[in-house]
Specification:
- The structure holds two protein chains of two kinds.
- By secondary structure, chain A is mostly helical.
- Helix content of chain A is 73%, strand content 4%.
- Chain A has a two-stranded antiparallel sheet with strand order 1-2.
- The longest helix of chain A is centred in the first third of the chain and has 31 residues, at 2-32.
- Chain B has a single domain (24-347), classed as ABC transporter involved in vitamin B12 uptake, BtuC (Orthogonal Bundle), CATH 1.10.3470.
- Chain B is 73% helix and 2% strand.
- Chain B is globular.
- The chains are: A mainly alpha, B mainly alpha.
- Chains A and B meet through helix 4, helix 9, helix 11 and strand 3 of A and helix 1, strand 1, helix 6, helix 13 and helix 15 of B.
- Strand 3 (288-291) of chain A pairs parallel with strand 1 of chain B, so a sheet runs across the interface.
């Protein structure tokens, strides 16, 4: 029994990573109806920016907020320059665009900061949390930040005019335009926010997985799995999905014989396929009905 | 309140642009000219160039397979590398562990991949657009880890992979050539062997898309609901497209294993799947000859971008891709059409 609870705790702490990533994935999916395959690379680049700022002597929280602002602006710029012209193009073209972006960012980061693994500081410290060996203060802090972020997003979308406008633009663009919402800029804003959340995710993840240009590969797949599990239309679902995926991963590793580190990615694959087949809308998402 | 009231109602967006059937192939004259050039190349080229041309044909087949799936039936796949890997491993294992003739391993690879694709298509057919891209993306990332599994290590050689012996030209041919005091190198033989298979698969694919099944694919691509109301069995044809595409990819994977003489899990990563996808976009979705233009792009452009800037090769690659998307969204097909119009103007 103790093993079981311990594994769940460990699962929650890894789940926090996936939850952050899934939140960013869902944010952009809400805004543009596409899964951004370059999401992980954008987060990685932001994390490198913050690392560079800290190398130049900017204190942690200063670097944190500067990076956030940078990512927000960069996200908007990417949308305006590269993806706005593609808004009416077929899905396929958009996916090709994301892949191109992925390749560009990854290669630039590799050139600027090379591929060696770097340590990344944490503001929460890494001593055991409340005497538990399994969950460090950093991981506890990560869970805390994720939940705070979720609450902030909830209030933004429910209680501000801007949030309402964004929701309107995403669900019924035509009617939203009729009541005077600039839907095109709402999409850009969605990109900016997704980039910002991605930056937070990257900064929180970096102390655990270490900083390098390919740090997001596995995390992104799990982020996708979490987002699909929770439902691509629901930020709350994404966070819960993230924790569930983390717990599931740990339990599967402990109790199913033969499932070790080497089967990590196939597990994510199996999870994604199962969820999409059994409950395509995910746990908290709204089912999508197609108009004939 | 019913479930549909709460549900999000969306109009179905187009996944791929509709390509008219006639615009899918080259004219007879052009096809024969291209074939003659392909036949003549090894006579004038060095072995390394011949090898690269062989790889071009092999990747071309893989891109063609994806093109049937996407350009034909409007489905997406970022997981072609997984089927390519299965095909490559099937060939390699049959050749090395069971001493099967290399030519006979290819149909086996094709059949196994067809089955794998058909089975994966079962869950995938419920997904569309982004979700399918996601599921196949996960398949491609998971594949190398599956291949490394301890259970299969006895056959697959685990992380080390397998070394495959390069086939010689058949003795009859060698003896016949000896009579004219000519010799055929392994590379050259492999090239012609690949070329024959490529031509066969190409003709077969063209015919497939012109057949009843091909029309069913295209009707699903253009409007699924209309297709099903016309009596097309959407589920069957969607999985069939997946299976056919996977099967052809498997054959190209088998050829790839024979040509490279080596299979290892890490040669079949998501990067490779993405390359194939890019090859299709660059070649023009739904334009079958474009597959080979796309294959040339994914083989030669990384070399070119590396020569422009070593560290930034990925970035150059990405920028080139953006240029293609913005300037020639229909890929090589668009350029071919412009070329045709120019040629027509000169003739007049």
């Amino acid at each position: 029994m103790e093993l079981f609870t311990n594994q769940i705790l460990a699962g929650i702490s890894t789940g926090a990573i996936y939850a952050c990533m899934a939140l960013a994935v869902v944010m952009i999916y809400q805004a543009i109806d596409h899964l951004n395959f370059a999401q992980g690379e954008m987060a990685m680049f932001s994390t490198f920016i913050s690392w560079q700022l800290m190398q130049w002597g900017v204190p942690y929280w200063g670097a944190f907020f500067l990076t956030l602002i940078f990512s927000f602006i960069a996200g908007i710029a990417i949308e305006r320059i590269l993806f706005k012209p593609l808004a009416k193009a077929p899905v396929l073209t958009n996916v090709a665009g994301f892949i191109a972006l992925f390749s560009i960012i990854n290669s630039c980061a590799g050139l600027i900061w090379d591929f060696t693994i770097k340590q990344y500081p944490t503001p929460f410290g890494s001593s055991p949390f409340l005497g538990s060996q399994l969950i460090s203060t950093h991981q506890a802090g990560m869970i805390g930040v994720t939940i705070l972020l979720l609450i902030a997003l909830y209030f933004f979308f429910q209680y501000t005019r801007m949030g309402l406008a964004m929701r309107a633009a995403a669900s019924v663009p035509e009617s939203a335009r009729l009541v005077g919402i600039n839907t095109s800029w709402m999409i850009a804003l969605g990109w900016g926010m997704a980039a910002g959340i991605g930056a937070i995710a990257g900064i929180l993840i970096a102390p655990v997985v270490f900083l390098e240009p390919n740090m997001m590969g596995g995390v992104l797949i799990y982020g996708f799995a979490a987002a699909v599990l929770g439902g691509l239309t629901s930020p709350l679902g994404a966070v819960i999905g993230g924790f569930l995926v983390g717990i599931f991963e740990n339990l599967a590793g402990t109790y199913i014989p033969g499932v070790g580190n080497e089967l990590k990615l196939p597990i994510a694959l199996a999870l994604i396929v199962t969820v999409l087949v059994v409950k395509p809308a995910g746990l908290f998402g709204r089912p999508i009905v197609k108009r004939v | 309140m019913t479930a549909a009231d709460e549900a999000e109602v969306v109009a179905e967006g187009q996944v791929v642009e509709a390509v008219p059937k006639r615009a899918m192939t080259l004219g007879t004259g052009t096809s024969i000219a291209v074939l003659v050039v392909l036949l003549a190349i090894p006579l004038f080229a060095k072995n390394f160039i011949i090898f690269q041309m062989t790889m071009l044909l092999i990747y071309g087949i893989a891109v063609l397979a994806l093109n049937i799936l996407t350009g034909g039936s409007g489905q997406f796949s970022l997981g072609q590398s997984a089927f390519y890997a299965v095909g490559a491993y099937t060939s390699a294992i049959l050749m090395e562990q069971f001493n099967v003739n290399y030519a006979l391993t290819l149909p086996v690879a094709g059949i196994i991949c067809f089955a794998a694709g058909f089975l994966f298509g079962q869950p995938a057919l419920r997904l569309s657009g982004v979700y399918l891209a996601l599921a196949t993306f996960a398949l491609a990332t998971a594949m190398p880890q599956l291949l490394k599994l301890g259970y299969f290590e006895h056959w697959t050689g685990g992380v080390q992979g397998l070394v495959v012996t390069k086939p010689d030209a058949p003795e009859i041919l060698q003896n016949a050539l000896k009579a004219f005091s000519l010799k055929i190198s392994q590379d050259m033989w492999l090239y012609y062997f690949t070329l024959v298979i490529t031509v066969a698969i190409y003709l077969w694919s063209v015919n497939l898309l012109r057949s009843r099944s091909g029309r069913a694919f295209m009707s699903i691509r253009d409007n699924e609901i209309a297709a099903s109301s016309m009596g097309v069995n959407v589920a069957l044809y969607k999985t069939l497209a997946f299976g056919v595409s996977a099967g052809i990819t498997g054959v190209s994977g088998g050829l790839g294993a024979i040509a490279v003489q080596f299979v290892a899990p890490d040669s079949y990563t998501i990067t490779f799947a993405i390359s194939l996808f890019l090859g299709m976009v660059v070649g023009g979705v739904g334009w079958l000859p474009g597959s080979f233009v796309g294959a040339a792009f994914i083989i030669f452009v990384p070399n070119i971008s590396e020569s422009i800037s070593k560290g930034l090769s990925g970035a150059v690659f990405g920028v080139l891709l953006f240029l293609v998307i913005f300037l020639v969204p229909h890929g090589a097909r668009q350029i071919a059409i412009v070329g045709q119009q120019l040629a027509g103007r000169f003739r007049r």
